[in-house]
Amino acid sequence: MTTEPVAAEDVFSALADPTRRRLLELLSERGDATATELAGDLPVSRQAVVKHLVVLDGAGLVTARRDGRERRYQVRPDALAATARWMNQVAAQWSSRLTAIKRLAEQAEGD
Amino acid sequence: MTTEPVAAEDVFSALADPTRRRLLELLSERGDATATELAGDLPVSRQAVVKHLVVLDGAGLVTARRDGRERRYQVRPDALAATARWMNQVAAQWSSRLTAIKRLAEQAEGD
DNA sequence: TTCTCGTGCAACCCTGTGGTTGCACCAGAA
DNA sequence: TTCTGGTGCAACCACAGGGTTGCACGAGAA
């Protein structure tokens, strides 16, 4: 289960690859799909797609389930939502740091 | 000078590296610093730090200015804020897609 | 003018990773 | 039972990227 504290490391590097972002798009549009199907819409082999899906799964962004002899992947709404919230926190943290910087700069001028 | 709109590609991969995230932290705390100074607080060489700073600059997250024979780097508040906003947009986009998925799923059940 | 010391370049090394191909395996269809 | 097609390994290849070392250059201090 990978629905807990999002790991900056994994999420950012997972999202850094264009093919993986595309995969998230495709899965979002279709609801779910197999690696073979996804490979049909991408300029890479099925195996390459599988590798990307493994990375996305590691980052908690997608999940998979067996369906007969197929393996269907789908995005994890909750994980994506959590990631979005987490990004906001990062942004907020930056903001507070920047505020602190400005304050210091102004104090320095005041001296 | 690299002051363009945030590129998913660059931002995500820039933020994917732990050392670079640490650099952003250090710069946020100090306001500004040289590569040599930053290397003093990290387990890597000055040259390694310089390379990371180049990447961060490429993503528009930091900027540098000459100060005598020194080159002082600092975070780009505006760019960071823009990135935060952009992340929110990505999150929102995901949300709408997920909503669409759920709607489709429910319709399918209804049939 | 000479000495110092931070920069900027460049050459290298090694690991990670995105991509490929080949093949064995197995569940469902015939 | 046999055939078929999607999975799951595993071996391999090429290149990007994080890290290092060495050295020339140049601005400010002495």
TrEMBL record, chains A, B:
Top-level taxon in the UniProt lineage: Bacteria
Keywords: DNA-binding, Transcription, Transcription regulation
Domain HTH arsR-type stretches: 1-95
Pfam families tied to this protein: HTH_20 (PF12840)
Cited CDD domains: HTH_ARSR
Protein name: Metalloregulator ArsR/SmtB family transcription factor
Protein species of origin: Amycolatopsis heterodermiae
Lineage per the UniProt record: Bacteria, Bacillati, Actinomycetota, Actinomycetes, Pseudonocardiales
